[in-house]
Fold this protein.
Amino acid sequence: MTAMLGPAWTVKPDTPDDTGRQPLAVETVIGAHAAALLPGVITTTPHARYLALHARLAVEAQHRGWTSKADLGRFHALVRRAEVVLGAVSVAHGDADDGHWLRAGSFGVHGVNTIRPELHRQQTIDVGRTADVYSRVRGGYLQTYSGIEAVLGLTDGARIPAPGPAADVERLAALDEALNVAERDKPLSVADLDALRHLCVCAVGDAPDGACVRGAYFAGSGGSGAVGAHRRSATLLVGALTEEHVDGESVDMAMDRWCCFRRGLSDLVGEDVHAHALVWRGALLRNWSVWAWRLIWARLVSPLSSTGTLEHAVAEFVRTLPNATVREVLIDGLPSVVDDIGTPLPVEHDLYDEVPDDGDWTVLGMLQLLAVGARRLEHLDPAARRAFADEASDDLGPGYVASWLTRNADRRLAEAVADLAKELFHRAESVSRQKMQWTRYGLRLPTRLRRVGDQWRLEGREGRGAVSLRLPTFTNVMQQLGVLGYDGTIWHPGRYAVEVTS
C-alpha cells in the first residue's frame, strides 16, 4: 500500500494557530465574480448611510484643512464619535420598532454589541466614552467602507479622504446635525436619540444624503462600468425578489431561480440586462460547485477532530458510498440539467431539497453536486459558460471534475473517491505552503490540521458554508435606499426602483 504523505507542513507543535480559511483555494473565482458584478458592496458594508456619513466627514476634513499625519488622530476621533451617534440613534429607533426593520434590513448597525447594552443599562449614551470602545480599529468602520466609497466616487479612499466626484455637498448636508451632535460632551438620552430618528439608518432612503448615495450607485461618477453593473444587477435583483417570500432561504436562491432557471428571461429583462444575467448565471451555478468542495473538505477532515490518521479519515469519508461505478452513479445516474428549449433545470436546488434540516449533506449528494456542475459545461450559453468555467485558474473547476469523471468512469466509486480525497490532502498542503509567512512567532502555516505524533488533529471546524456573492449585503443596501421594498412578508419594487430599472 502506498504511504499517504499528508500535510506534514504542520509538524512543528508550537506553530501559531491559524484559521486555515479556504484550505483548498477554490473560492477565488467567486470573489472575482462578486467584485465584477457588485463592485459597490462587500459583505461587511451593509449600510448605505455609513457611505453618506463618511462622504460628509470627508467634506468636513476638507473644510477644516485636515491633510497631514498630525491631523489623522483628530479625524479618526470625529469619525468614531459620528459613527456612535449614527449607531445609537439606529439602535434606539430599532428598539422602538416603528417599522424600522422593514426599511433598515436585517443587519445590525456597526458597534451594536457595545452600543445596545450601554443604552439599555444607562438609558443614555456617552458618545466620547463609547467611541473609545465600540471598535478596535482607530478609524472605526471607515477602513471597512473606504474602498467601496472610492469605487462609488464618494471619496478618494485616502487615510484622510477627500470628497469624490459623487459627493454632493448640498445633499450630504443632511448629516450636518450628526457631526454637530458628535462633538457635544453631554450624554444623549433616549429622548434625545428619539428626536434624532431622522438620522437612523432606516431613514436614509427618503433623505437627501440617500439620494446622493443612490446617484453614486446608479448615475454617478464611480466609473461607467461600476454604475452599469449596479443598475443591471439591481434590475435583476428587483425582478428576482418581487412577490417572493425570502425568509428561510437565501437571496441567492431567488437569484438562482430568476437568472438561472427562468424560462424566457430575455423577454422579461431586455437584451442588455439579459447579457448581464448570463454572467450571473455562470457565477451562481459555479458557486454550487465551490460550495460542494467546501462541504467535501469539511466532511473529509471531520473525523480528525478526535485525532486520527488520514487513512481513517478517507475510509470514513467513502464508507457510505454505493457499491457502483463512477459512471453508474455520477454520469449515467444524473438527471437532465436542461429543459426542452435549453433552459437550465434546478438540479442543484433539487439536491439541496434532499438535505435534512440540520444541513448535513451526504457524501454522495456532495459528489452529485460536483458532477452536475461538470455536466453543465455542455449546455450553458457561451457567456454563462465563460463565467462558469473560468478555465484560467487552477481551482478544481468544472473542467477538472469533468476530466476526473472521464478518467475514473469505470472504477468503483468508493475507490476513485478515496484517491480523490488523498489528492485533496496534498492540495491543502500545497495551498498552505503557498500562504506561509514568517511572523515574530516563527513560521506561520495556515491550516487547522496539527500533527500529534503519527496522527492528526483538526483544531476547530473547517468552514462549510457557501461563499458569498455579496447579494445579501446588496439587498440590504437597496432596501435602505428604497430600491427594494419589504412589507414583512413579501418583497416588492421600492419607491425608487424606477430610477434604476427604467
Notes: The radius of gyration is 25 Å. The first helix runs from residue 28 to 37. Residues 20 and 446 are 5 Å apart (CA to CA). Strands lie at 124-125, 188-189, 437-439, 442-444, 449-452, 455-458, 484-486, 491-493.
